[in-house]
UniProtKB/TrEMBL annotation:
Top-level lineage group: Bacteria
Name this polypeptide is given: Putative permease
Region feature (Disordered): 252-288
GO CC, any one term: plasma membrane
InterPro entries: Membrane_comp_ABC_pdt (IPR038766)
Length: 288
């Protein structure tokens, strides 16, 4: 009975349009689902590289050491950065520089582009932006005075993974090792500095630490994560998911307008009744 009904309905031109619309909708859902997954992964990866970490904490003062120890207990990698502006000297020539002091783990993610390639700020040495080198007429191998410390120029810093864009940052970059900051004497009580802490690990570790940390943050402290990328991908996924439904609705409307209303009605009733055309017909008769 069901086989005969299916064959009779399948040969109906209006029902064929419905089947084609359903097939197209399923194909669109599968294709768009794959696209949204790739977009989510891409956004998460870009967010990670842009921050040079999975999560980041910004503060105007050094955070309690217990916070970092808790992160390490949970299996997270922890990186530290300190940025501040100070005067540098090449002989008697002064130049304001935007100093970025990093630890040995930097960058946790992404690439630090230098000239020569593969350099990292080591204790006793610095990397200078090409503009700072030109302003002070310096070259690799020379020395530069940063506060009370005299440091050797190991090379140029071309691009930082987490540099971002700041139109108000007029001073050129000087990158140094965090271990040399105290030697410079440039950071004193009341100095305008920014601490950045980078955290790396899996999602369970990061989410657990985030729940532990957020209630303790002060108003001047900011927590950054890759959730923005996931929310963007989710919004895109939700928008794209409406496209197949729109296709299906338009095709069904077209089928109904072409005189196949009874067939589509019977099909929809059959689907609601669990796929039994006899039940569908019975309900239709009772309604009539």
């Amino acid at each position: 009975m069901i086989a005969r009904w299916f064959w009779r309905e399948w040969r109906s031109p209006s029902l064929l349009i419905v089947w084609l619309a359903l097939s197209l909708a399923v194909a669109c859902v599968l294709a768009l689902g794959n696209i949204s997954d790739r977009m989510e992964k891409g956004l998460s990866q870009q967010s990670r590289e842009f921050m040079a970490g999975d999560r980041a904490l910004r503060s105007s003062r050094e955070v309690p050491q217990a916070w970092l120890e808790e992160a390490q207990k949970r299996g997270l990698k922890v990186g530290k950065q300190l940025t501040f502006a100070t005067m540098t000297f090449a002989g008697d020539t002064p130049q304001l520089a935007n100093v970025k002091a990093v630890d040995d783990i930097y960058p946790m993610y992404g690439d630090l582009q230098t000239n020569p390639p593969g350099l990292k700020p080591q204790a006793g040495s610095v990397l200078l932006a090409p503009r700072l080198m030109a302003l002070l007429n310096l070259k690799t191998g020379d020395t530069i005075d940063v506060g009370d410390a005299t440091l050797r120029i190991a090379g140029e810093v071309i691009q930082e993974p987490d540099s971002g864009f700041n139109p108000f940052q007029m001073a050129p970059r000087l990158m140094m090792n965090l271990a040399d900051v105290d030697k410079t004497g440039a950071v004193q009580p009341g100095s305008r500095v920014t601490w950045r802490y980078k955290f790396g690990g899996n999602e369970n570790q990061l989410d657990g630490y985030e729940k532990w940390l957020l209630p303790q943050l002060k108003p001047e402290q900011r927590w950054y994560g890759s959730g923005t990328g996931r929310r963007r991908a989710g919004a895109i996924d939700g928008t794209l998911a409406t496209v197949p439904a729109a296709f299906g609705a338009s095709d069904l409307a077209a089928g109904s307008g072409s005189g196949g209303g009874s067939d589509e009605s019977l099909l929809s009733q059959s689907l609601r009744s669990g796929g039994d055309p006899q039940n569908a017909g019975g309900r239709a008769s009772a309604t009539a």
